[in-house]
Amino acid sequence: MQKTKTKISKASIYQFESFFHLHFLNESVSLSYTDKVKLPEISKILKNSIINSVEVIHFNSAPSIIPVKFYDKGIKAKYLETNTGSINNIDEDISADQKINVVYSKNKDLSKTLGLDKQKISHVNHFTQLYNYLSGVVDKSDGLSFFIKINSGSFEIMIYNKNEFVFFNTFKIVDENEFLYYTFFVLENFQSSIKKDKIIFIGKHEIFDKYYNLASKYSRIDFIEDDAHSILNFEEKFFSVINANNIRD
Q1: What was the pLDDT predicted at 46?
Q2: In sequence order, which residues have a C-beta less than 8 Å from that of residue 4 and are 6 or more positions away?
Q3: Which of 2, 141, 184, 236 has the lowest tally of Cβ within 10 angstroms?
Q4: Which of 65, 48, 70, 51 has its CA nearest to residue 13?
């Protein structure tokens, strides 16, 4: 008797430098690339399933961001040389508003490891998702807007002037004091007034309360909370991610 395959409409893979997080149906699991026990188990489950589509969201290398009007497809590798030491399997996104190209290195190819059909896999950089999401938030903003997304061991800051994107960077940190230092270093470079401007955190998670409380001592703060954010946990590392199903069109 032939075994009936499980039907999965969509699976999501969040790909980081040292591990990836897989979500499908009601299953959610984080794995290192060298896990010789769990990898074959997950691969077997996926091979015995009918999957319509797989979206891979790349956190595993820093992207380069180029305005569309200045973008040259022929020098994609050159764009990455200044901000990442890993240039392998280069891909690109274009933002929903058609204003910027996002170039990034996909590095590890999980399709073979997990037994996935390459024809059903789409790729997107985490910055592209974040940019597309925030583009719907800043439409009515006045002046500078400072958005921060905190992860364990790093944080990302994006700055808009009115509704125009002007800055993005990722900083590696060890604690809330380093977070505060880099945050206000950036804000001062943009001549921000801590009395007038405010920091808007993307998502609000209890594990980062120390960061929120420290920032609130020096600046006004606010949060974006609309169930569009989830948090992944892998060996006590926490990553705040955008849920693609809730991103505004």
Answers
A1: 80
A2: none
A3: 2
A4: 51
At a CB cut-off of 8 Å and minimum separation 6, what does 186 contact?
157, 159, 167, 169
DSSP 99-141: -EEEEEE--S-HHHHHT--GGGEEEEEHHHHHHHHHHTTSTT-
Q: Using CB atoms within 10 A of its CB, is residue 185 exposed (0-12), middle (13-18) or buried (19+)?
A: exposed
Residue 231 is predicted with a pLDDT of 78
Q: How far apart are alpha carbons 125 and 155 in whole angstroms?
A: 16
β-pairing verdict for 100-105 and 90-94: antiparallel
* pLDDT attached to residue 137: 78
4-to-49, 52, 116 alpha-carbon distances in Å = 9, 16, 18
> What is the four-CA torsion angle of 6, 35, 238, 105, rounded to 10 degrees?
-90
Which residues, listed in sequence order, are joined to residue 21 by a DSSP beta bridge? 14, 30
Low-confidence ranges of the chain (pLDDT < 50): 1-2, 246-249
Determine the distance from the C-alpha atom of residue 46 to the mean position of all C-alpha atoms in its chain, rounded to a whole number.
24
Cβ atoms of residues 119 and 51 within 8 Å: no
pLDDT at 149: 93
How high is the pLDDT of residue 249?
39
Residue 133 burial (CB < 10 Å; 0-12/13-18/19+)? buried
Strand-pair category, 64-67 with 100-105: antiparallel
What per-residue confidence (pLDDT) applies to 69? 93
Q: Check residue 41 and give its pLDDT.
A: 84
Whether the pTM exceeds 0.70: the reply is yes
Residues in the chain: 249
Element spanning 11, H or E: strand 6-15
